[in-house]
Amino acid sequence: MYLLSLFLALALRPLLVFATWGYTDDGSNYVIDVGSKLVFKVSKTNGDINSIVYRGTEYQGYSGKNSHIQSGLGRSTVTIASHTSPANLLMVTITYGTLVHYIVARSGQNDIYLLTNKGDASVAALRFILRLKPNIFPHDLSTPDFYDNVGATVEASDVVRNSNGYTKSKHYQGSNYGRVMDFDYVGKTTGKVGVWLIRSNHEKASGGPNVAEDLYEILFYSMCHTDPERWGLHGPYVLSFTDGDTPKKELFARNPNWSWFDTLGIKGWVADSARGYVAGIGIANMKSGHTYTVALSNADYQYWGVAASGRGAYTIKRVVPGTYKLTVYKGEYGVYTTSVSVNAGSATALHTITPDSDPSDVAAIWRIVHSINNPQPTYMHPSDPRLSSWGPEDFTVGKTAISSFPGYMWKDVNNDHLVYFKLTAGQIASAKTIRIGITEAYANGRPTIAVNGWTSPLPSASTQGSTRSLTVGTYRGNNHIYSFTVPASAFLTDVTQWNILKITIISGSGNTGYLSAGISIDCVDLY
Ligand SMILES: *[C@@H]1O[C@H](CO)[C@@H](O)[C@H](O)[C@H]1NC(C)=O
């Protein structure tokens, strides 16, 4: 009996262990076996990935939904080609109108490489979505009961609340993720199986949210975008399976060797040899406590490089040739712009840059800096009970903790915030300037001020992205500084008394509550 079962085991094992590299056509799908632990299917009708089996377990799909661009492309032309040079690989090409999407597998790799060329606006293609079977990977531990206990929608149906009042939305970034530039991948692991979506270099993208029960690669995000939508090739971005570990670093977009894509005829592909780079020797007058980033942007591409601390040297690699607007960011605030040209195969060398528009170069009498690193509702709705009250609470310069100044103000939630301050006899002898720096505005919200009995002229709205913003997890819009000249006559002549600054959000637009006109505040100062 023992011998017989041993014999059977030996006879069966090779079938399970030695997967064969290659593909078959099952009539409906191209069935691709990477020759390791991964077998996946691509629909010949519409290019959907409708099965992903890793080590014998199906991970793809729920409620009959597949993994694909947008919510599926519809009937497409789907072809497959096999290459033996520069590597053994299979490439599925899906053409739908002006959109071409590629799915590439390499022999022996448990990775699916994805590339998406968006030709124009005629095809909606804002994302690739990987739909994972539920209850295999762990949920967000901060809200363990959330997925089984969705109570009510909060504003649109895309923001929901459970019975604890905890809010959740596909728009909110998980708390472990920050800006696009801060992380290489999203994903989940059970400890034994990890599934990861490794991001593209985002040279064609415009930011976006990250992870939910589904994994997304965002190609363009229509809410609150400040960039143009860029046409052309996104990717590769990589769906990678592991035996529980985090994904291989060589797949990260920040340091890839994609030379094996160069000869595959991918529409819009630009080889490294046809790219250039920017090398700057430094940035002068950097303020401590801030990371400086140098970014390039034009209508077709965007890139960035982080400046080293100390002298601020930076490089921006693998840039497609062209003319770019260069912006030096102190944190997330642009303090210098210029224009640079990048040529193929060479470096554009830049001398030391001295930022010319850093608001903190002005010596202020007082300055309330709302640190955007404080807890912010980037991963919950501003009504969420885990956040502290938005106020209004009065703020007394020199007494109140800076952290209690509201990061957001809405016309219908916490309007008419008061700031108490004293000035010396010398200071009230001349007019002063009060600045309110905002990072985002919703529904044309903008601040107007009163100082004691004096009221400012009403400023006009800043230019911001479309649809919602503050309630869908972002305070990042177009930074704007409102500057008010306050006449000397506005200040109290009794210097022992507190002057009262009132900040009031105005707008002719907006709804009620958190959908009323609002702003996200970075800084308020007086000089
Ligand atoms: C990139 O990979 C190719 C092989 O695919 C290799 O020939 C080349 O040397 C690599 N380049 C770098 C910079 O490592």
From TrEMBL:
Catalytic reaction annotation: Endotype eliminative cleavage of L-alpha-rhamnopyranosyl-(1->4)-alpha-D-galactopyranosyluronic acid bonds of rhamnogalacturonan I domains in ramified hairy regions of pectin leaving L-rhamnopyranose at the reducing end and 4-deoxy-4,5-unsaturated D-galactopyranosyluronic acid at the non-reducing end
Subcellular compartments: Secreted
Any GO BP: pectin catabolic process
Limits of the Rhamnogalacturonase B N-terminal domain: 21-268
Major localization class: secreted
GO molecular function, one term: rhamnogalacturonan endolyase activity
Keywords associated with the record: Carbohydrate metabolism, Cell wall biogenesis/degradation, Disulfide bond, Lyase, Polysaccharide degradation, Secreted, Signal
Family statement: Belongs to the polysaccharide lyase 4 family.
A Pfam family it matches: fn3_3
Keyword Cell wall biogenesis/degradation set for record: yes
SUPFAM superfamilies attached to this UniProt entry: Galactose mutarotase-like (SSF74650), Galactose-binding domain-like (SSF49785), Starch-binding domain-like (SSF49452)
Protein name listed in UniProt: rhamnogalacturonan endolyase
Superkingdom, taxonomy of origin: Eukaryota
GO cellular component: extracellular region
Name of the top EC class for this enzyme: lyase
Domain Rhamnogalacturonan lyase: 275-349, 375-526
Enzyme nomenclature, EC number: 4.2.2.23
Signal peptide: 1-19
Cross-referenced InterPro entries: Carb-bd-like_fold (IPR013784), Gal_mutarotase_sf_dom (IPR011013), Galactose-bd-like_sf (IPR008979), GH-type_carb-bd (IPR014718), RG-lyase_II (IPR029413), RG-lyase_III (IPR029411), Rhamnogalacturonase_B (IPR016590), RhgB_N (IPR015364)
